Amino acid sequence: GETILVWAPVGGVGSLLVPWAASLGARVIAVTSTEAKAEKARALGASDVIIGYEGVADKVREL
């Protein structure tokens, strides 16, 4: 399967992209700013969520 990273997963485009990619079987890694938005991203189908924008590349590698 494919893995995609979605920045702002609960915004206009992100809220469409996350469930679409998840429904196609992709692993969705979402990057957002708050725990509340992270919960929404998970509800939309994100497999993993990173909260905060610093060190994102390193955090993705850790997954």
TrEMBL record:
<dbReference type="InterPro" id="IPR013149">
    <property type="entry name" value="ADH-like_C"/>
</dbReference>
<feature type="domain" description="Alcohol dehydrogenase-like C-terminal">
    <location>
        <begin position="12"/>
        <end position="62"/>
    </location>
</feature>
<dbReference type="InterPro" id="IPR036291">
    <property type="entry name" value="NAD(P)-bd_dom_sf"/>
</dbReference>
<dbReference type="Pfam" id="PF00107">
    <property type="entry name" value="ADH_zinc_N"/>
</dbReference>
<protein>
    <submittedName>
        <fullName>Quinone oxidoreductase</fullName>
    </submittedName>
</protein>
